[in-house]
Amino acid sequence: MQTLTIAIGDYPHTQALKAGEVASGQFALAFQEIKPVNRAFAPMARERRFDVSEMAIATVLQAIAYGVEIALLPVAMASRFQESALFVRADSPLKGPGDLSGKRIGVRAYSQTTGLWLRGVLHESFGLEPNDLHWTTFEGAHVEAYSDPPFVQRAEAGKDLLTMLRQGELDAAIVGNDVPDDPGLRLLFPQPIKAGEAFFVRHGFTPINHMVVVKTELAQQPGIASELCRLFAESKARAPMGPHDHAPIGRSAVAPCVRLAAEYAYRQGLTPRLLSEDEIWRYAPGDWG
Fold this sequence. Notes:
Elements lengths: L1 E6 L7 H4 L8 E5 L9 H7 L4 E5 H9 L4 E10 L6 E4 L14 E4 L5 H14 L7 E4 L14 E3 L6 H6 L5 E3 L10 E3 L4 H12 L4 E8 H4 L4 H14 L13 H17 L9 H4 L9
Parallel strand pairs: 1-2, 1-3, 6-7, 6-9, 7-8
Antiparallel strand pairs: 3-11, 4-11, 5-9, 5-10
């Protein structure tokens, strides 16, 4: 029996899989403990270091566009509304996202998935194009072949995102999972939950942040991709998910979200072309879960 190396995060819906309560008769899984799991994304995108890996959706789309030999599975690991990631100083004159035109905004990387979704919201709800803002980043993309658009500049070495915001060098900042607890900062969306619900009404899904990819040559082996999806679905079935499913599985469940992400990625200059459905799902199985 072959053994596949796998790097995924710790979630309620992966607990049974990582604990060995869900297993396959086709292959064994050797879990690589990488914390936080986003540290696995660049090694997978640049070196294909693992057989199976969690990966941010923006990185997945860039990797496919630039010819990295990975295949996307219709398995979401994490999703959330993004409006609670956009901060300004508490004393900022900005009253809402519509005031951002011409302003300086910082984000860890232009290719960060939270930024992808928020730029989409800014365009849909406020008519803002990416180049209407002055973007400052602190690192490059996980996919080495990609270069940031010309309207994006890199912060000086040693600079810190939130420190620049606090000191007035940035007008706004997009954070990731680590939301700051700082009375000197406030959210730019006055009602972020309401804004997230409005996104759901418009599109019918919660934006996916992370999905699962597999090496192309493994996805081409009969049954491997389907069996991986089955394992994720069975593990998820053993976990309470609450009122909202933040880890959808199956093409019908995730494809509309991935399609919109691909459209955003192309419009924002993250991919050199709009990816086709065949490119995105070339070795993926159908519905599970």
